[in-house]
Amino acid sequence: MNFSNVSLNLKILIVVIPIIILSLSIYFIYSILDTKGQLQEEFDHSISNSLVILKPSLSANIYNLEKQNVLNSIKGLFINENIVKVFIFGEKKTLFTGATKKDSNTVDEITNDVKLTNFTKIDDLKSIKGVETISISSNKRIYISAIIDKESNRFDGVILVESELTHLNKQIYKMIFTAVLGLISCIILISVLSFLIVKKFVSAPLQLLTKKIGSQSDELNSTNKELSKAFVKVSELSKSQSEAMDQIQNQMDEMVKMIDKTKKNADECIQIVDSLNNKTKEGNHIVDLMISAVGKIGKSSDNLQNISKIIKDISAKARVINNIVSKTELLSLNASIEAARAGPMGKGFSVVAEEVGNLAQMSGKAAKEIDQLISESQKAAEVVIKDMNNSVFELKDNSKNVSNSFQAISSEVVNIYNNTKEIQESTTQQSSSIGSVVSSVNIASSINSETYDQMNALIKYAKEIDIQCDKLKDIMDLMNLIIQGHKEKRN
Questions:
Q1: Can you give the C-alpha Rg of the chain in angstroms?
Q2: pLDDT tens-place string over residues 333-350
Q3: SS3 148
Q4: FRET partner for 364 with CA separation of 20 to 30 A, picked from 29, 73, 337, 413?
Q5: Which CATH architecture has domain 232-464?
């Protein structure tokens, strides 16, 4: 029999029942032996009392040699069914009379010669005090007592009683049989009660507790698996987000470079426009001189040539401005596309890109107007140069128009300067905003990296919890094996 496959109830009974049986057996054996001793002692005491009561009458009858009276007296002892023979020996150790019980429960006198030495080796019969008991065998006992007259202290003989303990032993055996039946009944009753008590108050609560712990363990394992899946998913999302952050970081770096380049071009454009403004002021001054000294225009043909050259330079600078405006518009468009790719994080940058695009459109419009004005001025200057020698009068009339044109150019140059200044300031603000965005992206990337590391750590913890859940399941299986004697099937 495999003891490990036995339920906890039977295990406890297997341990407890032998102890109970041993304890009860020891108790019953002790009780039986004690009771047997008490019965034997009571039996001996009853015979001793009978002899003590009978001896005075026996003393007188023996002394008077009244044999029949002695015989009648000793026949009364056979009321005790365990007494089989009674002998009366005289002072000379010879048989005076005796009686024996037959199988028919009749009492007859003993006629054959019986010697006292067959029963005892005591020489001085007077020295016998009270009633002495001699065990011949386990079923036979001899009781001997001296018959002495109390008044004269005369020794008249001895009385010897032979008893068989068959009836007493039958009573003892009956008592033992009854005790054994009681012991078996007690053992069965105690076994059943122990089984029920252990099952109700030990096994059932432990089994219920084991089921609850197993249920909680299954729920914990299921929850841990769901958490593990969530951690893995968050870790993957965090990794993807980190890669997206790296791409945004690279795009932001490129955008910063482009903005720095735009800012540099804007600075150069401001310098050009400032120079153009100065040239325009000089042109106005020249026109004023031309108006005041129209008569000297013929001699100032070279100055007009210079003015034509300056106008060409202005036209070249205006084309540069147009190129800058085109690049700015292109950069604004690229910035809007990148901002759209960045999603919610590029929303602020999209607004800045839109503003830069608007400024670029305004600058382009102003540049076109400047180019148009310069073109007209150049044509006018060529006409002036061409017709200067032919018609001084026409020069006088047109000089005023030239002056007005230069004033308009000066005004437009100022507008270009202001617009370019605004582009420069917007670019500076844009650079600062992008710097903040880059800083935020760096912080977000750092947080995302930390989150990714923490998710990996949580995944490790979840795996460790899963291992612990498996160990807990093994413990539950072991508890079920101990309590029920078999492992509980799990889904």
A1: 70
A2: 787 787 778 777 767 767
A3: strand
A4: 337
A5: Orthogonal Bundle (1.10)
